Amino acid sequence: PDIPCSSFAVFVDIDQVNFLEESVQKSENDYVIGEVELDSESVKTLSTTQKVQLLRYALNTLGITATSPPSGKVEEFLRRYRPTHYEALQVAGILAPVPV
């Protein structure tokens, strides 16, 4: 990017939820999602374009490939275990349809 990257803080937050089991063992019911965030105070003077450049640089540096917007934990639970409710929320325009 055209900004000095060393002067900005980047935070990585990884969340894991097991929808059906109260076990600490990994299972097929797990959902893991990660967030990469910029410290809002350190980037408040940057343009949106510069913020996007900085995030892409951080993702690339961390070896993370962003392929598509991930589902949040509640949305993923509904998609997996309450498909009728999930579809009703899509039809109502509350949830966006999943791109094919």
Q: What is the H-and-E element order?
A: EEHHH
Going by helix content, strand content and strand pairing, the class is alpha+beta
- Unreliable residue runs: none
Task: Report strand order across the widest sheet.
Answer: 1-2
Taking the sheet with the most strands, its summary is: 2 strands, antiparallel
Spatial extent as radius of gyration? 17 Å
Distance between the termini: 32 Å
User: What form results from the Cα inertia axes?
Assistant: extended
- Binned strand content: 15-25%
The strand count comes to 2
Tally of helical runs: 3
Relative helix content: 25-40%
Averaging pLDDT over every residue, what do you get? Answer: 80
Describe the structure in brief.
With 100 residues, the chain is α+β, with helices and mostly antiparallel strands.
Please render the helix and strand layout as text.
Elements: E1 10-18, E2 30-38, H1 48-62, H2 73-81, H3 83-91
Antiparallel strand pairs: 1-2
Helix pairs in contact: 2-3
Task: Please characterize this protein's 3D structure.
This protein has helices spanning 48-62, 73-81, 83-91; strands at residues 10-18, 30-38. The chain is α+β, with helices and mostly antiparallel strands. The longest helix has 15 residues, at 48-62. It is extended and about 45 Å long.
Task: List descriptors.
about 100 residues; alpha+beta; two-stranded antiparallel sheet
